[in-house]
Amino acid sequence: MGEVKRFSRAEVAQHKGRAGGRLWLVYKDSVYDLTDYLAEHPAGDAIILEEGGGDVSKAFDEVGHSGDARDIMAKYKIGEVNEDEKYYDEKGKKKKRVVEVQPEDGGGGGSRSLLGICCCGLLR
């Protein structure tokens, strides 16, 4: 088994399936080329074309696709999203994002205490 091919989300977004182009989608950080499946999709091709080039993870799960649908999709997997752009862990669970917060600069160079913020002028 060879190395997994990696794609950026921007690269996937270029494959919307319009004007005879390829149709790629992302589902839980895996990239699928569904161009050859469009005519076979039970709900028609319009619903897939609407999502072309995008991440369908939430929509796919909300519809409640069967295990058979997941098996069919596996045949069309062409790779995965680059590691630094992944939203899901190896078990398919949404990753928790850590956001770094910068301290506010009140202009005086110091920080305001919680007591000072809460009292806000009540104490003179």
Sequence stretches where pLDDT stays below 50 over 5 or more residues: none
The number of helical segments is 5
Distance between the termini: 73 Å
Residue share in helices?
25-40%
Give the SSE string: EHEEHHHEH
Shape: elongated
Q: Which assembly state applies to the chains in this document?
A: single chain
Strand order of the largest sheet: 1-4-3-2
Mean pLDDT: 84
Percent in strands? 5-15%
Structural Rg: 23 Å
What's the β-strand tally? 4
* Class by SSE composition: alpha+beta
Described by strand count, sense and barrel closure, the largest sheet is: 4 strands, mixed
Description:
The protein has 124 residues and is α+β, with helices and mostly antiparallel strands. It has five helices and four strands, in the order βαββαααβα. The protein has a four-stranded mixed β-sheet. The protein is elongated and about 65 Å long. The model has no long low-confidence stretch (mean pLDDT 84).
Keywords:
4 strands; 25% helix; four-stranded mixed β-sheet; elongated; alpha+beta; 124 residues
